[in-house]
Amino acid sequence: MKTSTLSTRTTFCWPVVLPSLALVLVLLLFSMLAPSQAEYIFNSSKSWITTYFSWFYTLAVAAFVILLIGIAISRYGNIRLGPDDAEPEFRFSSWIAMLFAAGMGVGLMYFGVGEPIQHLIAPPTAVVGTPSAAREAMLMTFFHWGIHAWAIYGVVGLVLAYFGFRYNLPLTVRSGLYPILKDRINGPWGHAVDVFALCGTIFGIATTLGYGVLQLSAGLTHVSGWDFSGLPMQLGLIAAVVTLAGLSAASGLGKGVRILSEINLSLAIFLMLFVLIAGPTLYLLGSFSENIGNYLANIVQLTFRNFTYEPANSENWYQGWTILYWAWWISWAPFVGMFIARISRGRTIREFIIGVLLIPATFNFLWMTVFGNAAIWVDTHTAMGALGASASNVDALLFTFLDYLPMAGVSSTVALALIAIFFVTSADSGAFVIDNIASRGNTQSPVWQRLFWAVILGLVAGCLLTAGGLKALQSMTIVAALPFAIVMLLLCFSLLKGLRADELHARQKLSHASNFWNGQRWRSRLVQILRQPTQQDVRTFLSDTVQPAMEKIAEELLKNGVEAKVERVSEDKVQLEVIQNQLRDFVYGVACTQKLVPDFALANTALPTSEQAETFEPTTYFTDGRKGYDVQSLVESEVLADILKQYERHLSLSLNADASLLQHAPSHR
């Protein structure tokens, strides 16, 4: 009775939840009690990884992009994430708004001005203060926020959505490894994968909340003139964000998260249009065209470039920007990928990939052009380098930039509201995802669990902000991205195996013998289906059924003046050959073929049983290279009919001028 009561109160998978909470507590205490030591250890680890594994990150992210594009243009793109008749749960606009808000909304507000300005004053290869520096600043910003970032999210999201909705597995990371681990996903290996994903999600969101509150407090201070930079005010902001996130999470995915995401996207578009109109409009429109062209022209080189041939400072720039971005996106991939998967049921794989790769990336390009190029123009034409001089204070850089535009108070207030809602949507969608992992994909979890995880996120962010351990934890999250990148490559391999099995399942046709079967002799047919034939069974079938049918056909052909013969090539092969001058001979042969039986089939009582590790089938073969088929269920009259059907096909093709080329090819006698 106790267990039953507990199961109605919680859907937690305790082998995942308890180790995760313990690990979070240990790392949190270490970062709080010894922040300088923690920062040193994690920063040293981060430096070692970015130095020795930058090539691995480069190739891994390239593989993710190539894989998704390849799947989208292949026949696999038609597969639906769910049953073949499944319909999308959310309308397209809501779907785009939710994946955008969860994936990059906070980052766009933080780096929309900050990154282009920082690249402008310290470009990787261009000369500072030249047009080339501005062009390179926008190119690198596009590269970091383009399809590569969304490919990282898309891989995890597609794998989880595919195995979750197509294979009916729990919507957790472990399910993506099902083709590799099989039933072991339910054991310690599966628990370990989910613990890793759960902890990474908590730390990734918590550190983002911590840094986001710094920007929010800087914006409030800038707009209101009051000092919001104190720790009590910042903790109060975290409490407010978590409270709103809890209310949103409690209302459900289809209400709170969806509504806030749509509001967010609307405000973002409004603010972007304001900057476009109030700023140097013609310059921004021209910049967007040139930025897109520059990005597309260099995308292949950028994908694989690691600055090996450039000076050391360029390589350091690459490790400090691109590699850290790739690691940061990978560390966020369990959270964003699972959220995208959760909202994508019913869409085709092609629709998923196009939607995830192109639409958010295009919006990112628009956003970065409007804010980034506008900031560059202001810095070089109006501010006279003032924005570049304050680039180190990224928290307040957006609001400093808006001061140079008309109605700065209004636009800064909208920006503050946008940042706040972005944080709420990140926190409430994060609570959904964390609860999903902790519950092994159970969608019927009680409301208090989502509230619990929202509180955990707030506590972790608040504790780290108090102790100054945010930088240490950020570095630790980036370090953790390396092993998860390896897990992601395994997920890619699993996805290909799953898609291949899906295709074979869809292409599997009824046996050839079913074309002749009319329901008679059903008992003997059932026994034959359930029995795994031996090699001797097939040899007997060739002697007693196939060869007599061939001999009757050959005898009748000879009576009609057509040269034909039956040859028992070996114990395992018999064929009928019709000799034709100036044409390829017609051959209808049947051979005993051997197939291996999977291990699971040998122990499954619902499948044809045998102690053999292989099965044997009488399979047809022809001289024109066509694939043969199994005829083991045919009786003699049906074999006769099948031979005549194939012979009639052969003659029809011989009389067709367009198809007769192969028929006239010489045969070796």
Topology:
Layout: H1 2-9, H2 14-33, H3 35-52, H4 54-73, H5 92-103, H6 105-121, H7 131-145, H8 147-165, H9 178-181, H10 188-224, H11 231-251, H12 253-278, H13 281-304, H14 312-342, H15 349-381, H16 386-389, H17 394-402, H18 408-438, H19 447-467, H20 470-507, H21 522-530, H22 535-559, E1 564-570, E2 573-578, E3 586-596, H23 599-602, E4 614-621, H24 636-654, H25 660-663
Antiparallel strand pairs: 1-2, 2-3, 3-4
Could you walk me through the main structural features you see in this protein, from its secondary elements to its overall organization?
The chain folds into 2 domains: 10-497, Amino acid/polyamine transporter I (Up-down Bundle), CATH 1.20.1740.10; 522-663, no CATH class. Helix content is 70%, strand content 5%. Strand 1 (564-570) and strand 2 form a beta hairpin. The chain is mainly alpha-helical and 669 residues long. The protein is built from 25 helices and 4 strands.
